[in-house]
């Protein structure tokens, strides 16, 4: 698919595009966050390269780039690992912003998502960025949940949460963990969880000798689901690291949000979870990825 408007074309990205898109990603996120007084989520070019190369190498992601007169000026990724499509990151070079490029990239991404007949489309939007909030709303996204990116590990590592036991996940846990995810989200995230188990990043929490929650890791590319906030607190207490800027905590989950604050974690950036299509509020405690 190619879209053309006043010299703009949008096409599938290739390996040759990843480095230039990483530079744009780093510059764009650093600029907009700095303008609003927030730390960059992509503080170095190497951080940008690391993330975009990870996404490009995953066959379950689509990669679209925007070109103007043959010069790459932006990109967007689509996460196609479940029946829900996640969009992001999306970035446009600082010298090409405010010309409708981001809108065209998002329209192209939405077209791709709809071609898959997905149940829904979701993304995370930095709440301070009123331009992107307005754009996504105009394109049909609805606001669902306020989020806070929180940084830092709990000050009491491996704190004792009554009647909860945390351990490293193993392949035999996959079916039970998927059942928890379906209970909380309405669908499972089996591809993500299976990969996290293989990397030995995933944890499960048991309550009364059964799995009551899991985390695929902690960071923008990871997620966690649990039956209650107590299980999530137990998982967080056993996290040995948070990758990148932080984790997304739903601020309307008062029990979990306040526990994080009371245990030394700090709010870094406000976010908003936005969706198109099917959306059922999660039935339990959850920490979403940068997509959902």
UniProtKB/TrEMBL annotation:
CDD domains, per the entry: NAT_SF
Residue span, N-acetyltransferase domain: 8-167
Gene3D superfamilies found in the cross-reference section: 3.40.630.30
GO molecular function: acyltransferase activity, transferring groups other than amino-acyl groups
SUPFAM superfamilies according to UniProt: Acyl-CoA N-acyltransferases (Nat)
The entry's keywords: Acyltransferase, Transferase
InterPro entries noted in UniProt: Acyl_CoA_acyltransferase, Bact_Acetyltransf, GNAT_dom
Protein's name according to its UniProt entry: GNAT superfamily N-acetyltransferase
């Amino acid at each position: 698919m190619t879209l053309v408007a006043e010299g703009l074309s949008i096409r599938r990205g290739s390996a040759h595009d990843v480095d230039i898109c990483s530079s744009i990603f780093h510059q764009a996120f650093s600029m907009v966050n700095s303008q609003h007084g927030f730390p960059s989520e992509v503080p170095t070019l190497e951080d940008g390269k690391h993330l975009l190369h990870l996404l490009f190498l995953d066959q379950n992601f689509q990669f679209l780039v925007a070109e103007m007169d043959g010069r790459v000026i932006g990109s967007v990724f689509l996460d196609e690992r479940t029946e829900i499509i996640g969009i992001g990151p999306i970035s446009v070079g600082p010298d090409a912003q405010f010309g409708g490029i981001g809108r065209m990239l998002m329209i192209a991404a939405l077209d791709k998502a709809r071609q898959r007949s997905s149940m829904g489309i979701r993304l995370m939007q930095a709440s301070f960025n009123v331009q992107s909030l307005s754009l996504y709303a105009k394109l049909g996204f609805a606001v669902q949940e306020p989020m806070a990116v929180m940084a830092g590990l709990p000050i009491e590592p491996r704190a004792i949460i009554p009647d909860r036991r945390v351990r490293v996940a193993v392949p035999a846990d996959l079916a039970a963990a998927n059942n928890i995810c379906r209970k909380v989200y309405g669908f499972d995230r089996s591809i993500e969880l299976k990969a996290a188990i293989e990397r030995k990043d995933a944890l499960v929490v048991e309550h009364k000798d059964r799995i009551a929650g899991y985390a695929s890791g902690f960071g923008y590319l990871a997620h966690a689901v649990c039956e209650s906030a107590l299980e999530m607190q137990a998982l967080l207490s056993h996290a040995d690291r948070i990758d990148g800027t932080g984790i997304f905590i739903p601020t309307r989950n008062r029990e979990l949000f306040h526990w994080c604050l009371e245990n030394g974690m700090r709010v870094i950036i406000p976010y908003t979870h936005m969706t198109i299509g099917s959306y059922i509020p999660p039935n339990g405690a959850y920490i979403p990825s940068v997509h959902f």
